[in-house]
Amino acid sequence: MPKETNFVEVEAGERDRHYYHRMVECEGSFAMLSLHEDVTDAIIFVHGFGGDSYGTWAQFQLLIDQWEAVKAEFAKRDLYFFQYHSVWERVESSSNRLLKFMRLLIPEINLEHFAMDVGPVTVPKEESSGEVSEFVVPFPKDRKYERVTLAGHSEGGVVIRTMIVRDLENTALLNCRLALFAPAIAGYKPAGLLGSMANFPGLGLLLEAVLVAAPAYQDLKDKEDLKQLKTDTETAHSKGRALCADILWGHKDYVVKPQKYACDTQDFEDCNHTQICKPSEDYPKPLDHVKKWPDEKKEEHK
Rounded distance, CA 136 to CA 119, Å? Predict the structure, then answer.
C-alpha cells in the first residue's frame, strides 16, 4: 500500500510564509498554502477578461508574505488562484470549470489531487522493488475549510455568480462569501478613453470587430443573459451567503457599469478598472476586502 504523509516540517519562523503548489490538473492554476496546522480559511481568486492567475493578483501574492503589516493576518489562510480561458470560452463553460475546481476543496479537500509521489526520490534504487511509493501532501496537517471567500475581478464576478445559480443545492458552495472587484454583472459599457475609441469612425468598428470574436465578450454584451443572472440570483438570495456579494467599485472605471444586486453591499474607491484589485502599502483596501468575515453575515443572508 502506498504510504501517505504530510508535508515536511518547517522552522517556526518560516510558518508565516506560504508554500506555492501548482495545480497540475487545472492548467495555470496554483495555490499559496499556509504552513500552519490550524487553518480553516481559504480564498479563491478568479481573474477577469484577458487576465490570468498570476498577473491579475500579483500584488496579493507579493504582499501577504512580505509586508509585515498584513503578514500575520494572512498567515493562516490558504489562497488559490484559478486560471480559465477568459477570452475564448463561454462564461457558462468557465463557470463549470470553476465548479470542478471548487469540488477539489469543499466540502472536503481532495488529497489525491495534491499528493506528490516522492518514492523514486526517497527510496534508494537498490532497495526499491519497483512497487514502493511514498506520497506527500503540501499540508502540515489534514484540514477542512470552514470559511471560504470567492474573490472575483470583472468577468470573474460573472463566472462566480453563474456557477452559484447553476448549483443551488450545493450547501458548501452556498456558504461561501463573495468579495467582488468591479464585476461585469451589468456588462460592458464603453466610456472615457475606451468610449472615445469605440465612437471614433473606423476605429470603433475595428475595436468591436476584434472583441466580438471572443465568446466571453459576446456573453458580457448579452444584456438579456445578464438580466436573467440577476433575476435568478435575487430570487434565490435566501438560500445562502453566496447569493449576496460585497462589491468594490472604482470611481474611474470606464469598463464596467456599477450595478449591484438587491442584497449586495458596495463601496467605492478612487481607482480605475485595473487598479481596483491591486493592493499596495498606500492602497490596502483590496486586502481588507477579501479577508473580512463578519459573523453577522451568516444571519444577514439567511
Answer: 9
Averaged over successive runs of 10 residues, the pLDDT of the chain (302 residues) comes to 51 75 89 93 95 96 93 95 94 97 94 71 52 70 92 97 96 97 85 48 53 81 94 96 97 91 96 95 96 63 42
Strand 77-82 versus strand 30-34 pairing type: antiparallel
> SS in 3 state form for 105-162?
CCCCCCHHHHCEECHHHHCCHHHCCCCCCEEEECCCCCCCCCEEEEEEECHHHHHHHH
- Check residue 137 and give its pLDDT: 81
Q: All domains of the chain, ordered by start, with CATH?
A: 3-300 (3.40.50.1820)
- Note whether 19 and 27 are within 8 A (CB): no
Nearest by Cα to 138 from 57, 290, 23: 23
**pLDDT at residue 213, rounded to an integer:** 74
pLDDT at 112: 80
Coil, helix or strand at residue 89 = coil
DSSP string across 181-235? ES--TT-B---HHHHHHHHSTTHHHHHHHHHHTSHHHHHHH-HHHHHHHHHHHHH
Integer Cα distance of 184 and 180 in angstroms: 10
